[in-house]
Amino acid sequence: MTLRADLAALLADAEILDVDIEEAVEDEHVRSHVYRKIISVAAASQRRDGDRALVATILRDPIELVSKTAVVHFVDTIAMKAADAAEFQQWAAGISPETQLLKAKGSRRFVQRRIQDWTMYLEIKAGRKPTDAELTNATDWMQRLIATESTSLPILTLLAEKGRTSKIRRIAKNRARSRAIKMHSLDDVPDERSVR
User: Fold this and answer.
1) Has this prediction a pTM greater than 0.85?
2) Which of 16, 17, 67, 85 has its Cα between 20 and 30 A from that of 182?
């Protein structure tokens, strides 16, 4: 198929009518925006059976940076909606074969790392503590996200000591300190059940 035909099919499937296909074909910035709109519609759907075909179609885009960015956005969007790591891993396994269409090994590796990062994030969110190696091998992006969002004192402490960047270490250290203060303060407040 041609880029024009691919875009027309994706837009029709997503029922998006307000796009100038000619402009999207000619301008990769417009096309990137169009892919984000299509992905938003696909991710909002309860059905995941068309996602592999969607990824395959996007990856036929002649500009790999545009297609890789769109697929990463799709991975991020689905991960943020996933109920748990197992659901997300199942979805990712379905699209992973299509990522081999990326020509650059670095692009394929980037998408796979993003999937690994989100899997770990969802496992942490479910209460599983990652190994020190898993956490320290996470990308800077994921370490920063975990440092910003985690409420686990052991995870924050590890990132405060071994985070990849000074920013990650600083965020984790500040959050660990405030978390420790809150935990200590809560220990000083009598439990209402024990007051009886």
Assistant:
1) yes
2) 85
Report the distance separating Cα 67 and Cα 107, nearest Å.
10
What is the predicted pLDDT for the residue at 174? Answer: 96
- Given a contact cutoff of 8 angstroms between Cβ atoms, the answer to whether 156 and 147 are in contact is yes
Q: For CA atoms 180, 182, 184, 187, give the dihedral sign.
A: negative
Measure the CA–CA gap between 134 and 143, rounded to whole angstroms. Answer: 10
Secondary structure (DSSP) of the chain: --HHHHHHHHHHHHT--S--HHHHHH-HHHHHHHHHHHHHHHHHSS--TTHHHHHHHHTTSS-HHHHHHHHHHHHHHHHHH-SSHHHHHHHHHHHGGGGGG-SSHHHHHHHHHHHHHHHHHHHHHTTPPPPHHHHHHS-HHHHHHHHHH---HHHHHHHHHH-SSHHHHHHHHHHHHHHHHHHHHHHHSPPHHHH-
**Are the C-beta atoms of residues 67 and 58 closer than 8 Å to each other?**
yes
